[in-house]
Amino acid sequence: xxxxxxxxxxxxxxxxxxxxxxxxxxxxxxxxxxxxxxxxxxxxxxxxxxxxxxxxxxxxxxxxxxxxxxxxxxxxxxxxxxxxxxxxxxxxxxxxxxxxxxxxxxxxxxxxxxxxxxxxxxxxxxxxxxxxxxxxxxxxxxxxxxxxxxxxxxxxxxxxxxxxxxxxxxxxxxxxxxxxxxxxxxxxxxxxxxxxxxxxxxxxxxxxxxxxxxxxxxxxxxxxxxxxxxxxxxxxxxxxxxxxxxxxxxxxxxxxxxxxxxxxxxxxxxxxxxxxxxxxxxxxxxxxxxxxxxxxxxxxxxxxxxxxxxxxxxxxxxxxxxxxxxxxxxxxxxxxxxxxxxxxxxxxxxxxxxxxxxxxxxxxxxxxxxxxxxxxxxxxxxxxxxxxxxxxxxxxxxxxxxxxxxxxxxxxxxxxxxxxxxxxxxxxxxxxxxxxxxxxxxxxxxxxxxxxxxxxxxxxxxxxxxxxxxxxxxxxxxxxxxxxxxxxxxxxxxxxxxxxxxxxxxxxxxxxxxxxxxxxxxxxxxxxxxxxxxxxxxxxxxxxxxxxxxxxxxxxxxxxxxxxxxxxxxxxxxxxxxxxxxxxxxxxxxxxxxxxxxxxxxxxxxxxxxxxxxxxxxxxxxxxxxxxxxxxxxxxxxxxxxxxxxxxxxxxxxxxxxxxxxxxxxxxxxxxxxxxxxxxxxxxxxxxxxxxxxxxxxxxxxxxxxx
Length: 707
Ligand code: NOJ
Ligand code: CA
Hints:
Elements lengths: L5 H10 L10 E4 L5 E8 L2 E8 L2 E8 L2 E3 L10 E14 L9 E14 L4 E10 L2 E8 L7 E7 L2 E3 L5 E4 L12 E4 L3 H8 L13 E3 L2 E4 L5 E7 L7 E6 L4 E6 L8 E4 L2 E2 L2 E7 L2 H6 L2 H4 L15 E6 L1 H4 L34 H14 L3 E4 L29 H10 L3 E7 L4 H18 L3 E5 L14 H16 L3 E5 L14 E4 L6 H5 L6 H4 L36 H10 L4 E3 L4 H5 L2 H9 L4 E10 L3 E8 L5 E7 L4 E6 L8 E9 L12 E8 L4 E6 L4 E9 L1
Parallel strand pairs: 22-23, 22-28, 23-24, 24-25, 25-26, 26-27
Antiparallel strand pairs: 1-2, 2-3, 3-4, 5-10, 6-7, 7-8, 8-9, 9-20, 9-21, 10-19, 11-18, 12-13, 12-15, 14-17, 15-16, 16-21, 17-18, 29-30, 30-31, 31-36, 32-35, 33-34, 33-36
Bound molecules: 1-deoxynojirimycin (NOJ) and calcium ion (CA).
């Protein structure tokens, strides 16, 4: 372990106005020595600060918890003891960006007493080369037993008016476009940042969600998020925009409380990533490392998935999940559809699903998602009762038995869809049978969804109760060997390390918004810095027909991307579950470009971030698991991007053929998105490629060894 001297530390701290004496301050460094964490109890208040290469990351910041109906755990503390330790291991994820991950940190454990209330609280800090994690721990020792959190007051004091890529604080949705602004501008830009069709519960004019990416004037990249969110409510950040101090702000329950805990217990980790190189933000494993190892003994049933699906037809194409408009004739209590008339725009029908199965089989996709297969959709959004769906009864035109049999005969599986419509008790009531039905027909993955206000009413998507539900759905699914891809659930915090059947989730503004209101061309150059920090996203890329009016005259939708950028997303937006979201007939018009989607891997031995700047561009290269094949992707904002790409990551002793999918000279995300050129080239590790991404464009390259 590398320590800086205490006197050097005292100088840094004095410069930061941290008034503690040299003798009392506890401090540890990252294994490299670049990150230094200081912690102490000052006038009874636990405090910490962080520097990176002697630059201030977190100014002295307070730590504490406010309780409901009993004295707070904010002050009156005494430092009883501190313990420093180190840890270094390398572990293998079940799926991931890299075959191996090193988990190497130095740890400081502060043991605190609050003598007036006979309580104890510990604060554990872990300092890695890529950042810091800290959490509160409440031992079952002393007077604290069951307690209710009024709010957590973890401060993150910034050293200036940094640039931030942020979305508005909200207890129920993250489906926002990011705003890039200085911290001091958040208040003014807040109203404009909120999308009109989200069911937001805005709580503060300066409140934002995590993961929050920032950049300082002197070139530091700082990211604040959380790891291992279990049995606790999700953290937002509220900004004191005069002093640039963020403070944690937890999601309340229906009664306004923010957590019900019983000792022994602990909070999730609060994470601070830092580097002077933006690429390190993307390659960081801090959040995964702060999660517990895999809890399952047998993980052989967990497999990355590439899929197509009956989906874009409803999202963009004006078709419906429901079978009929004839709501009054359905007996909702018994979900009896025998006397209803179909409206004829229900793509989850036998013939259409077979078409997708054939397409999947022909082009090597693993699965076919079918949404709208089950009864209940006529009443799903405006539902007043909590039992819309039973997740078991197919519509009359979806033959669950025959379709699964047909799919399996072609080496393909159907992917299950469970839209819960936020009705949690209903879902839990049916869950065992619903998963059982999946086992019966050979489904091994479910896309679940939580659209709409929560039932029980007043609960929020990101509250403790719901967070427990999402994990319950995942662990129950594991008992059935089912993988879960949850939409509208809480943002991920690395739990996929512990529960790798949490194969993916949405929890951000995905491709579906291209058809509703459009995404900013820069959106996919921000998401890997923010939403993807906690785990993969089911972004559903692969749209080839950008002009939605061409196949849906009632739509005004336009996908803000070039076709080639859609290919690159399979590399830049890491996920072990990837959809090719467009219609089969749209792919059939561009089979040469579609080849990249067919070829690209979904699981990797190695990943390298070659160029990156939030909101501008990302260039990533990944080596497909168990092969010598590499795939490169570049996504650019509306400014486009030029690269001189050195292929020095290739094996020096091998020769390769590269297929380069590039935007044409005149390509543009708005006016000419489908203009591309494909070239083949022999390359080696010495090759440098000059490449250009159009505005809202990118490039994609597949590289395979030859001879
Ligand atoms: C919203 C999800 O994000 C989308 O993918 C899904 O199709 C709808 N809900 C219906 O469940
Ligand atoms: Ca969604």
